[in-house]
Known about the structure:
elongated; mainly alpha
Amino acid sequence: MTGSADEDRADALFHALADRTRRDIVRRVLAGEHSVSALAHKYDMSFAAVQKHVAVLERAGLLSKRRVGREALATGDIDAVRSVGSMLSEIEQIWRGRISRMDELLATDHRTGTTPDLSADPTKEH
Length: 126
């Protein structure tokens, strides 16, 4: 996958999870397979609205559907959820690296009694 494809996938995942109802649907389908009609009974909204939420989750890869007779059964994809966790961990590691560098800089300045060089761009990775 290219960097752009990764970013598109991240956009789709975070867009899908940005909605409270969709997060709840993900929790339910990760616990076990549910028919879309059974899911629709859990929410105070139309069946069509729940179908749209399920479609957004399916496009993002967070769940898959299969047909059994007239029912559409939805199942959560734990690998997709893990990929979201990995993306957040990667962002956390960048943040932790910056905090660590600031700690090192402050410790160095404290020992030498010099003023820290604040001209460096703190958003740049070293």
